[in-house]
Structures are given as C-alpha cells and as structure tokens.
Amino acid sequence: MKFSTKGRYALRMMLEFALHPGECTKINQVAERQEISDKYLEQIVTILSRAGYVKSRRGAQGGYYLTKDPSEYTVGMILRLAEGSLVPVTCLEDEVNPCSRSQNCATLMVWKELDHAISHVVDGITLADLVEEQKRLDGQANYYEI
C-alpha cells in the first residue's frame, strides 16, 4: 500500500500546526520548512479546513491553526480525510454488500488482518505523539550539529 503525497503532506502540515500551538502558521512557512509547493498545500489546507480540523485567521498575524488539541487527532483521521478509505482491497469497503466470493475466499483473511494492522497503527498514533517525536529528532539534530 502506498500513500499519496496528499496524505503524506496533510500529515506533515498538521504536524507543523501542532508544533506551533497558540500561533497561526502561514502556508508559505509550512511550504518552506517542509519543502513542499505552497500551491499544493493550499489545496490540502482547504480539505483540512472544510473538515473542521483547522481554522484560518486573516490579517498580518493570520494563518492556520488546529481547532483541537493535537492529542485529539490520530494519524488515521488525517490520512482517511486526505486519502479516503485505507482498506487494502475494495472488497472490504462495503460491509453491507460484501463480495460474492467472500464466503469462499481464503485470501480474505489476509486482507482483513492487513486492514486491522494498518488501522491499529494509524489510529494508535496521535498528532501529539508526532510532536514529541519531532522534538526528540530536533534535539538529536541539535546535539550532533555542535
């Protein structure tokens, strides 16, 4: 399974907002720090804003900020918003109308286990966890730069 740049960049953008609590972060700041096109980030922030994950503030001190505490966002929430379903195969997407072969498909077990594992990982990591990891990495980088 591969995640698109939209999902990866949405996660990185949300992390940038979480790293600067109480501040508004401008798209061009995220673009510069993350080395991502600001035009692409504008498209992604629209998705995040429509979902209520971020809000904007106009003006010289304006930008975007998280609407909730970073601990209330999981990686899974952000990826599902940007990517859509994370299930590894389409036959798992519709539980109401399962695949006609589901009763006789031994491989279905593999896809269900994989789906469970993916969900367990992405739903078990919060934006707050990523903030702590980023701070750890930044501290490590500063230590080695001396």
UniProtKB/TrEMBL annotation:
- Any one GO molecular function term: DNA binding
Q: Extract the SUPFAM superfamilies matched here.
A: Winged helix' DNA-binding domain
Swiss-Prot/TrEMBL keywords: DNA-binding
Task: Report the superkingdom from the record.
Answer: Bacteria
Under the heading PROSITE patterns, the entry gives: HTH_RRF2_1 (PS01332), HTH_RRF2_2 (PS51197)
One GO cellular-component annotation of the UniProt record comes to:
cytosol
Q: Which InterPro entries match?
A: TR_Rrf2-type_CS, Tscrpt_reg_Rrf2, WH-like_DNA-bd_sf, WH_DNA-bd_sf
**Name by which UniProt lists this protein:** Transcriptional regulator, BadM/Rrf2 family
Q: Which organism does this record belong to?
A: Lacrimispora saccharolytica (strain ATCC 35040 / DSM 2544 / NRCC 2533 / WM1)
